[in-house]
Write the structure tokens for this entry.
Amino acid sequence: MLQLDYTRGIIILVCILVVAYIGTAIYFKNHFYLGSKINGVNVSGMTVEEVENLMASKFQSYSLTLEERNNQNEVITANDISLTYDSSGKIREFKDNQSSLGWIFGIFKNKSTELTDLISYDKSELNTKLSNLKGVASKDVVKPKSASVQYIDGEFQVVDEVQGNEINLDKLTTEVDNAIMNSNETLNLDNADCYNKPKYVSTDSEVSDAKEKLQKYASSSITYTFGPDGEENLDGSEISKWLSTDEDLNVDFNTAKVKKYVLNLANKYNTSSNYRNFTTTAGNVVKVVPGDYGWRIDVNSETEDLISNIEDGQTITKEPKYLQKAAKRGSSDIGDTYVEVNIPQQHIWFYKDGALVVDSDVVTGNVSAGNGTPEGVYVLKYKEKDSTLKGEDYETPVSYWMPFNGGVGFHDAYWRDAFGGTIYQTAGSHGCVNCPTEVAKALFENIQAGTPVIVYGK
């Protein structure tokens, strides 16, 4: 009897369990397993229709908060971008994959899923929204600025970069799209790398390398000497104004500024364009117009040389490179070796190392024909034996030729039997200084190229 009751109890218990299991299976035929989640939303025990309604409601009120720099937040709502929900049967498909009869096994399975493309929105509306964000359109947006090297308080120093708050709109658009499609509610723009960055920061090797090179250049000290006329000192305070870096922190010389500095030296210390007070043999002081004689700095060559000195970080004392040098520096740069030509007196004197070597009457250019010998202080260009002088209407051989101004020079005039006086006024030369042959010979034998020639008329 007891055995029969026990058997009957077991059968009843099994029937109850079967009925309960089948009942639960019937329940889970239309409801999600307990613990089921869709995109992080708990849908336990809900029907597909209930989940669809829940998701539609969720996305209808959806908003994305953009966390920007300077504690500024901006919000994009579903209405801003015409966001709509459409599962396209994906919720149903997920439910169908949960077997109602196998619900007992579902207890031990992962019941979460991430469904994509549940929503759509108007991309043009999003673009408009993003373009009008304060972080994008505000006049207060600060652009990033790379670290730089500046000359401050007598030395080159690193100036830190500026991060700014300028948003990279293309990057932001991509990250916002991802956030919306993944139903994220916040997007930190810094974490998402949505800001434009400075190209270089102060700790980059390019910055330290640029500083090292600039400081080397600025440490140069160049002293230009000009004899009794003075000297010019060049140091970092001026050199720094000629230096800059490009966007890749390559150090550049402003060659135009270096050249301007050398030009200023030339303007101050060149003498070839100077009027000169010249003491004549007679002891009178005459003012002589410029010719081509005098100190002349080679601006182009010296500019290149100076840049090279600075690039080597040199501390030196030097003379500039010259196109032409005079006999000496000082108030009178002519020295004591020169030829003096007095046009009114039709006379020349040649002094060598202060001693009078030649003293003679001559015939200069024909004034009435407009061929007067040009006044000025010139350089004897060269001397040549047995030369032929050629012009438009003449061709004349001479034994001694010593030009000082283009086609104007000293030479022998063997065809003349008289010199000096007023011959030059109506029967002078084509511009040259005609000398007696023995005078031309003496001058030729003692003079050298580079000797100053002073021609004056008063």
In short: The first helix runs from residue 2 to 30.
